[in-house]
């Protein structure tokens, strides 16, 4: 099988080349360009294409891929809200993903953001580099004894629950389905979790139902001086309402690995670009906000798992024996 690999970063190529040794029937050509309407035609002659979470794979792109003969879209990510699945279904393109490559990688990043905003590490790092050893503005807050509210207790949320328990926190959660492995977690309805938590961490996928689930009304229900962390998807939070909440001194800290409008920035070096009217600039103007670049997944262990599962998905597709949890569309 020949796979055309879009939006290649150095770390992708290193880990895929390394794991490919165990999959002799698979060839990969790496492209730096992202998959979109203009670049989809490069897939002519390839049975499969591989894309990542920030590509916009709408109907036009899917149609061009199908016209080029591609039968398989390998998402090297857990999320797939960027793919028009109905269009893929119509055009007989199977979409496979990597459902749980390393939940701990993302959960540990969520806790890293929590600790960073909680102890103002982002400010302290810069101050000390400038020989400013003043402690003003660095007062933190203990996590031990506080309540963590975890929204979504699938693989990543469950890992975050365990980490929060390790910090001596009471762990509360909201999910449509209770995770039976989490016997130390108190499940509550969404409003109650908002009202009682000192730390709220989002770990549910973005769906049509929960778009902007964190908005003016839900922010108003939160405790004053809450910490809000989002490593899930930007559009779970209404950014304008978040900014209004930050300005109203609602939050002790906000840590975002994902944010609305991140598309153009994610994984790109834009240091020479003047970012006009961008939300990230406004968010970064606040001393209690940290933004990272959708890097929750980026650990060595996760990259190895992503490469192996993606290559295994390709091999299984050839043999028509796909694991159900990896399947996002149902073509076989
Ligand atoms: P999962 O599928 O194991 O768990 C998601 C959980 O959310 C499920 O238990 C589901 O019942 C629950 N859920 C669905 N809708 C909900 C709602 N409206 N309210 C509360 N709970 C709801 O997914 P996993 O692997 O834990 O990933 C979660 C999300 O993390 C992904 O969808 C993706 O958006 C994000 N992610 C972020 C990464 C990063 O680098 N920052 C990397 C990987 C995933």
Automatic annotation (TrEMBL):
GO molecular function, one term: D-lactate dehydrogenase (NAD+) activity
SUPFAM superfamilies xref list: Formate/glycerate dehydrogenase catalytic domain-like (SSF52283), NAD(P)-binding Rossmann-fold domains (SSF51735)
Ranges where the D-isomer specific 2-hydroxyacid dehydrogenase catalytic domain occurs: 3-320
Alphabetized Pfam families for the sequence: 2-Hacid_dh, 2-Hacid_dh_C
Domain of life: Bacteria
Ranges for domain D-isomer specific 2-hydroxyacid dehydrogenase NAD-binding: 111-296
Keyword Transmembrane helix in record: no
Entry keyword Isomerase: no
UniProt KW keywords: NAD, Oxidoreductase
Membrane spanning stretches: none
InterPro entries referenced in this protein's UniProt entry, alphabetically: D-isomer_2_OHA_DH_cat_dom, D-isomer_DH_CS1, D-isomer_DH_NAD-bd, D-LDH-like, NAD(P)-bd_dom_sf
Family (UniProt): Belongs to the D-isomer specific 2-hydroxyacid dehydrogenase family.
Name of the featured protein: 2-hydroxyacid dehydrogenase
Organism per entry: Candidatus Merdiplasma excrementigallinarum
